[in-house]
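Marked as duplicate of an earlier ticket. Keeping the data here for the record.
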Amino acid sequence: MGDDRWLGDGAPVARLSGVVRRYGEVTALDGVDLSIRAGQLLGLLGPNGAGKSTVINLLLGLRRAHAGTVELFGGSPQDPARRRRLGCTPQETALPATLRVGEVVRWVAGHFPDPVPAEELLEQFDLADTVRRQTGGLSGGQRRKLSVALALVGRPRFVVLDEPTTGLDIDARHELWQALRRVHAAGTTVLLTSHYLEEIEALAERVVVLHHGTVLADDTLGGVLSRVGVDLVSLRWTGPAGAAAGELAALPGVARHEHAGDREVLYAADADRVVRELVERGLPFSGVRVRGASLEEAFRVLTAAPRSDRRSGEPHEVGS
């Protein structure tokens, strides 16, 4: 690959060091450090306004940092030669409605020295039967899949996928997951954002959580889950309906209580202790279940805690 000359052994594909970015009086990123090494599949999470889009815009060369440095393949993201090995799918997909799918793919492919043949690319994303259709006649899910396919037509070394499965039904989403796994297995570095946390859980080997413009967590998926350190105890409350919230939230070690359908859900660091307390206090319940927190639940705990309550730690690199 032509861009390899910019990367020494072990050098990151992309890096943010002490990055600050403001929009007027709003600080979108506040001293962010992030290093993405070749071959990683990184999931970038954060509530709305956390700074995810700003990170992406900096890596794509669409914005500049007010402080700190941003590198892509060892140099400036504004350098067109470095961006040639970068692919991206934006949140909003704008395709020329009157052009046929095959025409769009071939037009984009013409910007790269060694593109994936149109037929092969469309087959990979289950779009082969759309090659002669106008993009304006595609379903929303087909347009999203085409947008992801176009991000990969130039055989990028690094691809940024911003909410790639928005608008897809569950079957189409799982088909796209399989395609992304194949792309990653072939050696492409992937940065993925998604509002579907099960998507990050299914695909990412490394998870970065942004909140208020800072890196709140940066670890393997298992590391993020263990960092939260909570289990979920769910049960059916068989006593007076109005008493559940007060009785359950007051149990020692319960950090959070939620009502979900016909069940009460308790977040606790020591699930065994919670169950013992339920029994010893003679509280009316049945059907108790205990399990570890999912990524979505860990994310909610992390981003809901006051800053002073969060475990500190320097963002670090995971894997290589």
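See parent ticket for discussion. Confidence is low (pLDDT under 50) at residues 1-6, 308-320.
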